[in-house]
C-alpha cells in the first residue's frame, strides 16, 4: 500500500463532508431519482444496463425502513415508465435488519412483490459479516415465493464464501460475486490482495460450473481476464453471466468488455445518504481520491 493510500484511509474520518463529496461525486448519480434515470439512459446509449440503488443503510427506526420501501416502489415505477434496462438492489439493514429479521424480510418482500408484478429483478445486497447468515436466510425464504425474481451477493474476501458458493450453486442461485469492501477480522476474512483474488477465481469457477448466473463484479482487469478464461473453458453462452462495475470507475475497461460482446451492468447509486457509501469506496480504493485531486488541480490550473 502506498503512502498516499495509507494517508487517505487514516484521515478519512477527519475529512470534511464537502471534500468527500467532491471526490465521490462522479460515483453517485445524484440526490434525486431523476438523476438516476438520466444516468441509466446515458449508460444505455453506451451499451450498458444498470442496477439502481437507493443509498441508505443501518436504519434504527421502523419509519425509515418503511420510507425506503416507498422509495424503491418509486424507482420501480420509474424503471417501468421509462422502459429502462435496469433492475434494483437493496441493503437488508436499510430494510430494518438491525431492528428485526422478520420485519426486514417483510419489507424486502414488499419491494420484491412490487418488482415481480413489473418483471423487474431485485438483488439483495450483502453487507458486513455479522449480517451474512440473516441475509442468506431471508434470500432462501423469498426465492421460494419469487423464483428467479431475486438473487444475493457473495464477497470473495470472506473465508466462508467458498462453502456458501457451493451451496448456492447447487440451487443455481443468481449471484453477484465481488471482492468485498467491508474490513473484517483476519479470522473470518482474507487480507492479502493475491489471496482475495485467488478466492474470487475459485468461487467464480464453482458458481459458473454449477449453473449459477453470475454477476462478475470487478474492476480488476486481471480478474476480468481470469473470468473470460473460465467462461471460454466452460463454453458458456453470453446469457449465462454478466460483468458488473461501479458508476464512474474505469470507463475504458467498461468499453473493452462491452466491445467484446459481453453484457455489462453498471451500479447506479443515488440519494441523499451518499456519505457512508462514499467513505467506504474511498477507503477501499484511494485512487478515487487521487483522481479527484488531479481533476481539482487541472481545473484550478485551467481556470
Major beta sheet, strand line-up: 1-2-3-4-5-6-7-8
Helix-and-strand structural type: alpha/beta
Shape: globular
Radius of gyration: 19 Å
Oligomer: single chain
> In percent terms, what proportion of residues is strand?
5-15%
Arithmetic mean pLDDT = 89
Number of DSSP helical runs: 12
- Percent helix, as a range, is 40-55%
Could you spell the SSE succession in H and E letters? HHHEHEHEHEHEHEHEHEHH
- Low-confidence runs: 292-303
For the biggest sheet, the summary is: 8 strands, parallel, barrel
State the end-to-end distance. Answer: 33 Å
Task: Tell how many strands the DSSP assignment holds.
Answer: 8
How would you describe what is shown here?
- The chain is of the alpha/beta class.
- 51% of the residues lie in helices and 14% in strands.
- It has twelve helices and eight strands.
- The protein has an eight-stranded parallel beta barrel with strand order 1-2-3-4-5-6-7-8, surrounded by seven helices.
- The two termini are 33 Å apart.
Provide a brief overview of the structure.
By secondary structure, this protein is of the alpha/beta class.
SSE topology:
Layout: H1 3-11, H2 17-24, H3 33-45, E1 49-54, H4 62-81, E2 86-90, H5 101-116, E3 122-124, H6 132-145, E4 150-155, H7 161-169, E5 175-178, H8 193-209, E6 214-217, H9 221-234, E7 241-246, H10 251-259, E8 264-270, H11 274-284, H12 287-302
Parallel strand pairs: 1-2, 1-8, 2-3, 3-4, 4-5, 5-6, 6-7, 7-8
List descriptors:
303 residues, alpha/beta, 12 helices, 51% helix, globular, disordered C terminus
Amino acid at each position: 500500500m502506498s503512502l498516499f493510500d495509507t494517508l487517505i484511509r487514516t484521515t478519512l474520518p477527519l475529512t470534511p463532508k464537502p471534500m468527500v463529496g467532491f471526490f465521490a461525486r462522479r460515483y453517485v448519480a445524484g440526490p434525486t431519482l431523476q438523476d438516476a434515470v438520466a444516468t441509466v439512459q446515458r449508460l444505455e446509449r453506451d451499451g450498458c444496463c444498470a442496477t439502481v440503488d437507493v443509498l441508505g443503510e443501518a436504519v434504527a427506526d421502523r419509519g425509515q425502513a418503511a420510507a425506503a420501501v416507498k422509495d424503491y416502489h418509486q424507482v420501480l415505477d420509474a424503471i417501468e415508465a421509462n422502459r429502462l434496462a435496469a433492475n434494483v438492489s437493496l441493503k437488508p439493514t436499510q430494510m430494518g435488519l438491525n431492528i428485526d429479521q422478520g420485519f426486514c424480510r417483510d419489507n424486502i418482500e414488499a419491494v420484491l412483490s412490487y418488482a415481480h408484478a413489473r418483471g423487474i429483478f431485485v438483488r439483495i445486497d450483502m453487507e458486513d459479516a455479522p449480517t451474512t447468515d440473516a441475509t442468506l436466510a431471508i434470500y432462501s425464504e423469498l426465492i421460494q415465493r419469487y423464483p428467479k425474481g431475486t438473487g444475493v451477493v457473495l464477497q470473495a474476501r470472506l473465508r466462508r464464501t467458498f462453502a456458501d458458493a457451493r451451496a448456492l450453486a447447487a440451487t443455481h442461485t443468481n449471484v453477484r460475486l465481488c471482492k468485498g469492501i467491508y474490513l473484517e477480522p483476519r479470522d473470518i476474512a482474507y487480507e492479502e490482495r493475491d489471496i482475495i483474488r485467488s478466492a474470487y477465481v475459485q468461487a467464480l469457477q464453482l458458481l459458473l460450473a454449477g449453473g449459477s448466473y453470475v454477476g462478475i463484479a470487478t474492476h480488476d482487469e486481471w480478474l476480468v481476464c481470469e473470468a473470460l478464461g473460465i467462461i471460454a473453458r466452460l463454453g458458456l453462452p453470453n446469457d449465462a453471466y454478466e460483468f458488473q462495475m461501479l458508476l464512474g470507475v474505469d470507463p475504458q475497461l467498461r468499453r473493452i468488455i462491452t466491445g467484446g460482446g459481453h453484457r455489462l451492468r453498471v451500479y447506479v447509486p443515488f440519494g441523499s445518504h451518499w456519505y457512508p457509501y462514499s467513505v467506504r469506496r474511498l477507503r477501499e480504493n484511494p485512487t478515487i481520491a487521487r483522481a479527484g485531486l488531479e481533476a481539482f488541480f487541472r481545473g484550478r490550473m485551467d481556470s
